[in-house]
Design brief:
By secondary structure, the protein is mostly helical. The protein has helices spanning about 15-20, 25-40, 45-60, 60-90, 90-110, 115-145, 150-180, 185-205, 220-235, 245-265, 275-280, 280-310, 315-325, 325-345, 350-365, 375-400, 410-445, 450-485. Helices cover about 75% and strands about 0% of the residues.
Length: about 500
């Protein structure tokens, strides 16, 4: 699928809309897709706030606590590519409905858990069904919105949910834990899923069955799933084990070897799980890279800033969630403006580059907080700046990641975008946590221990992580600026706009 350089936005085509039965109810479908995406994104953070209460209720150890988060990330991250291709082969509506129903059931089991084993099984099951519904949701968005202006607005909303949903999860988790019970951080998914299920059943149509359904690439599925699992598992272990431990480098090496094997296999099989044509397009590859690096940097905001406002500013869980809302607001405004107004005029290259530079500036500014800073004078404004930058870069990257892809590759292209984010988040967890821990250790060497010193060391570890995140964003701006094509991409006539759904 070719991506041309400069071209005028594609005019609205009534014939095209006539071939797309989703067009008349596209905005209602956006609500359904948005709810599904929000549910998946929320679950990456909503449980974090509830963990202390869940630990007290179920009596599990500190070592088991991290696996409540990791179980979800492992299943979700390792199965995304398989889930995306399954949606392409067996139908995106089917994949979305099965994913929503399974996610709701897993959430019910997790909310009713009577021990850590039951909770971990439920979290892993959430990841499995999330890996099925997330690519289907993005692929359906791609095939439903065919007019460039409306597509920009839709992807702006979707990108805002993807970028701000994690912060909303922190707020919602705090509210539910404080006023109801930690179990409602799981039960709340049932409400989202039922609404989305009803909407999907009524509003979406099944795809026409293909004359000859391609076979699923089993060797590719096994190598990709095992490779991604090993990578996520290795980086997850790095938060508690040393990087020289076999549980870290061994799994990382195995993951890299399996993914190299996967790439080789994809060039030799008739029906690859991830066709190389999806990755080798410069705009699409640049978008995947942007989403990968943005996820690494964003992690430091949600993790370390949550520690700072709770431990140093003494914020309650609800106040901690509210502290992120200004960032969510600027992120949403920037995301919707970028895709609806700026992307059709300038293309992705300047937006992604400028957005990542702005985000780098916000993170660098945030690295100047200390033990005497307040939320108003130390956190608020750099957080809002970072939100502008992330929204300006993430939403266009997400839109271009699936723009112009062949109809039968829309699901796997969407899955690759989600995989880039998930693996980026896992790497960010391990890398920045290790950097922060080393910074805190170095800060207290040779100094007399005191409560003030420990507070200063903690803040120093956070600011070090913020500075590294700024550097990652800046590196991303350069790399994506070199990779992305200048100008506005052309949508070919055989792009997903013409898909019969």
């Amino acid at each position: 699928m070719s991506q041309a350089t400069v071209a005028a936005p594609m005019p609205e085509d009534t014939a095209e809309h006539g071939s797309n039965p989703h067009h008349a109810r596209r905005w209602l479908i956006l609500v359904v897709i948005g709810l599904a995406q929000l549910m998946v994104v929320l679950d990456a953070t909503i449980v974090n706030i509830a963990l202390p209460s869940a630990q007290h209720s179920l009596g599990f150890t500190d070592g088991a606590r991290q696996w409540v988060v990791t179980a979800y990330a492992l299943a979700f991250g390792s199965l995304l590519l398989l889930g995306g291709r399954a949606a392409d082969l067996f139908g995106r509506k089917r994949a979305l409905i099965v994913g929503l129903a399974g996610f709701a059931i897993a959430s019910a089991v997790g909310g009713a858990a009577n021990g850590i084993e039951m909770l971990l099984i439920a979290r892993a099951a959430q990841g499995v069904f999330g890996a099925l519904l997330a690519p289907a949701a993005l692929a359906l968005l791609t095939t439903t919105f065919t007019d460039p202006k409306e597509r920009g607005k839709a992807f702006g909303v979707f990108g805002a949910i993807g970028g701000g949903g994690a912060a909303v999860g922190l707020l919602l988790g705090g509210v539910l834990t404080e006023y109801l019970d930690w179990r409602w951080c799981m039960f709340v998914n049932i409400i989202f899923a039922i609404i989305a299920l009803a909407g999907a059943t009524v509003l979406l149509r099944h795809e026409d069955a293909p004359g000859e359904r391609p076979k699923l690439d089993i060797p590719g599925a096994v190598s990709a799933t095992a490779g991604l699992f090993a990578l996520v598992y290795g980086f997850s272990n790095a938060t508690s084990d040393d990087w020289s431990s076999a549980s870290v480098w061994g799994f990382l090496a195995a993951g890299a070897a399996l993914l190299v094997t996967f790439v080789v296999l994809q060039t030799r099989v008739a029906h690859p799980l991830l066709p190389m044509r999806v990755l080798l397009d410069r705009n699409r590859g640049g978008s995947y890279l942007a989403m990968f690096l943005l996820a690494i940097g964003m992690f430091s905001i949600f993790l370390f800033l949550t520690f700072y406002v709770q431990q140093n500013l003494s914020f309650t869980p609800i106040q901690s969630g509210l502290a992120f809302m200004p960032m969510v607001a600027t992120l949403m405004i920037a995301a919707i403006s970028a895709t609806a107004v700026l992307l059709p005029r300038f293309g992705p290259k300047p937006l992604v580059t400028l957005g990542m530079l702005i985000a780098a500036g916000g993170m660098w500014w945030l690295s100047y907080i200390d033990t005497t800073s307040t939320y108003a004078d130390g956190v608020l404004f750099p957080l809002m700046v970072a939100g502008v930058g992330i929204g300006l870069s993430m939403a266009p990257a997400m839109s271009v990641a699936v723009l112009g892809v062949d109809a039968h590759d829309a699901g796997v292209a969407s899955a690759t975008a989600n995989t880039a984010q998930q693996i980026g988040g896992s790497i960010g967890t391990a890398l920045l946590s290790t950097i922060a821990a080393n910074a805190a250790t170095s800060f207290i060497v040779g100094k007399e221990s005191s409560q003030q010193l420990m507070a200063e060391a903690a803040v120093h570890s956070y600011t070090t992580a913020f500075a590294w995140a700024a550097g990652i964003f800046a590196l991303g701006a350069v790399a994506c600026g070199l990779l992305l094509r200048p100008g506005v991409p052309v949508i070919d006539s055989d792009a997903p706009a013409a898909v019969h759904m």
